[in-house]
Amino acid sequence: MDPERIVAFERRITDGIVSEQDQFRELIEAYALGALDPGERVALEAHLAAGCSECAKALEEARFLVSQLAYLAPPAEPSDMLKARLMQKVRAEAAVGRPATAKTRGALIPYWLWAGVAALLLLSIYSTWDARKLQQEVQEVNARAAAERNKREQLEQELTLAKHEAWILTDPTTKKIDILPNDKEMPRLEAMWHPELGIYITGQRMPMPKEHKVLQLWLIPKSGGKPMPSHVFWPDANGKITEMVDDPPEVMAQTKALAITEEPAGGSLQPTSTPLWVGGVS
């Protein structure tokens, strides 16, 4: 046993550091011995957790004092009867799966610790749920933003196309071409060809092509060569056609006529059927 540590502790008591007026300091020695009731233990632990440095130091000294008490007792050997009872107790507990030990371990865990673990578990579950909810909300906002962006881009494209078409229709250099059907009962089409902006084809009450078929525009060159393939298209649900061909494969001056045939889906490199509409350019 360290006599200097004990003397220092006794001097601390003599100087009044541990006073009768301080209820927590009165409990420190009993706490170190494990002799406090649950209410007093909880109160003292809360006081120590609050950061009282004097009580913490006093508790450290008290624990050291308790650890040295064992050295004050004279050496002694247990009697044969006590050894026999102790061994009998150990064998009995081992035979039933150590119930007393399990019970003692459970009793050593305070209820407030179980409550803290439960609160931490609930907080973890809530945090996970809140994070997933926030992630879902962010995804929804991004999806709405993407939809609005696509809608705006589509409107801008439509506006650009409308300006393009308006320029073609009003520019004096645009040439109007009547594209007439081979069948008189079929509607007529009209093409407006601007030398720089392209060809704008319109039509009303157009029948839908046959199944797995599309309409395809062809440019017939003046040189007598093969028809030059251009855009594929089809009427909308109301039978209306508004097709903008801004990249015709031949210039107007070298084109003899425009023709429209019915081709397999995706179009063809050369016509596979007789033209249904033809319109002379020059």
Instruction: Give helix % range.
Output: 40-55%
How many individual β-strands? Answer: 8
Rough outline: rod-shaped
Distance between the termini: 123 Å
Spatial strand sequence of the major β-sheet: 5-4-7-8-1-2-3-6
Written as H for each helix and E for each strand, in order along the chain, the element string is: HHHHHHHEEEEEEEE
Q: Over all CA atoms, what is the radius of gyration?
A: 49 Å
Kindly describe this structure.
The protein has 282 residues and is an alpha+beta fold. Among the domains are: 76 residues, Arc Repressor Mutant, subunit A (Orthogonal Bundle); 106 residues. The protein contains 7 helices and 8 strands. Strands 5-4-7-8-1-2-3-6 form an 8-stranded antiparallel β-sheet, with helices on one face. β1 and β2 form a beta hairpin. The longest helix has 60 residues.
Could you give the topology of this structure?
Blueprint: H1 3-14, H2 23-33, H3 38-49, H4 53-69, H5 80-95, H6 99-108, H7 111-170, E1 175-181, E2 189-194, E3 198-203, E4 213-221, E5 228-233, E6 241-245, E7 255-264, E8 277-280
Antiparallel strand pairs: 1-2, 1-8, 2-3, 3-6, 4-5, 4-7, 7-8
Helix pairs in contact: 2-3, 2-4
